[in-house]
Amino acid sequence: MKLFDVYPLYDVTPVKAEGITLTDDKGETYLDFYGGHAVISIGHAHPHYVKRLKAQLDQMSFYSNSIHNPLQEALSQKLGSLSQCQEYQLFLCNSGAEANENALKLASFHTGKARVIAFRNSFHGRTSAAVAVTDNPKINAPINQQHQVDFVSLNDFEAFDQVISRGNHCAVILEALQGVGGLDEPTTPFYQFIVQKCKEHGVLVIADEVQSGFGRSGKFFAFQHHGIQPDIISMAKGMGNGFPVGGILIHKLLKPSFGMLGTTFGGNHLACVACLAVLEVIEKEDLIQNAAHMETCFRRQASQIPRIKKVKGRGLMLGLEFEFEVADLRKRLIYNQHMFTGGSANKKLLRFLPALNSTQKDITLFFERLQNELS
Known about the structure:
The protein is of the alpha/beta class. The chain is built from eleven helices and 14 strands.
């Protein structure tokens, strides 16, 4: 049997990882400045993380949500405290797409309405409703197009006002910092305008923090840079440091009912321990503050390279924009400089999502290798 060939693969086979370093099957080491799509939040094989998961494996790895799981309660309390979102309720699933799917479904249940407002260059996942609110027709199959979605450009006050005034919307879904789209973000006045208009029209605000959450932006959630409060917050990638975990935070004003949402694997014992370990490391090592500090270091070193047109993003969710398309540069950085970076819908942007415990030394090494390839 062959694999279903949907991923363009680089000719590298990592077999071991530690911190921000990958080692391949030939013994060559690579600097990981991409973190597997922002998943590796506390570094590969962090000792505390490994210890916690091994201990849980010795006890119990899984049972369904038909029984009481104290780890879910512990995770809920820890997450509420560290994120300063104690007024929310937690529903656990397995991925970012599932988180957004459940967020949209919940908004529709709550309002009794069907239409959604989403934004140009957005990416919210590949399941049915999540892909429908993603601005990429290449991955939007005919079966997904039954969903009713209005797309608006970021920071276009007039267009947003016109669309939401038509009525029948259950939700607005918004990335506070677009990942796949190329690190564009709403301005604070625009985000606050969205929240105000949604209150006026009885529409829920869904903050998609799947990539930007868990400290990556220099705050626990990226929307916290804008002084607003969403109704639902979706999250996933950095939650489990590689173990599949997703979830939504649901404001206490939204009331649950049995059977409204459900999952087989979501919130299982290993997933909860993985997430708890990540939160414990983030807190103990002050990694949210570190992400903010590393952004300053990154921007300072980037300013010394004339060929860089612009630095985009926040915290350790960053991009370098050039005057040229970067696909070939990405390839050369892997094969010549042994360094992983990311791309986006912006073909001139290199994207960086290293572990939140990256150091100034790591950033200096990154720019040395980048300079080597640009010379």
